[in-house]
Amino acid sequence: MRKSIENLAGRKMTGGRKVAMRGRRKFEIDRYPNEAVVGPTQIVARRTRGNNIKAAFKTAEFANVVDKEAKKVTKSKILKVNKNPANRDYERRGVISKGAVIETESGTAVVVSRPGQDGVVNAVLVKAAAAKTS
């Protein structure tokens, strides 16, 4: 895939065709996004510019959930993705990205990290789960 961030060619305001002055540079070439979904944890190492490595989630099982009221961080199991404002298709497929609302064992939380880039799911608790009574 050779899509680029910079729009080298395109259309004029009149609708006429613009011819690119040059081809794409190596640093302008993009790649497929890594879309983390709910499942048993799988991490992929991706080589980035400068020969660095990004640890990216393919599937995520747990999230580090911050409870601001109790001032506590807990490792909670991700149950499902409730909402994803980034993309309606992500919501349907259950993709976890920054800003996604996830259902965890601790309650409903909003993802604040970038799982496809960082390889970790950090979330802030929005609504705590009701205590189960028997």
Automatic annotation (TrEMBL):
| Gene Ontology MF: a single term | structural constituent of ribosome
GO terms (BP aspect): translation
Q: Which Gene3D superfamilies match?
A: 2.40.10.310
Renumbered to this chain, the signal peptide range is none
Pfam family name, one = Ribosomal_S8e
Q: Which Gene Ontology cellular component terms are annotated?
A: ribonucleoprotein complex; ribosome
**The entry's keywords:** Ribonucleoprotein, Ribosomal protein
NCBIfam families (UniProt xref): eS8 (TIGR00307)
According to the record's subunit comment, the protein's assembly and interactions are: Part of the 30S ribosomal subunit.
Instruction: Indicate the family of this protein.
Output: Belongs to the eukaryotic ribosomal protein eS8 family.
Name this protein carries in UniProt: Small ribosomal subunit protein eS8
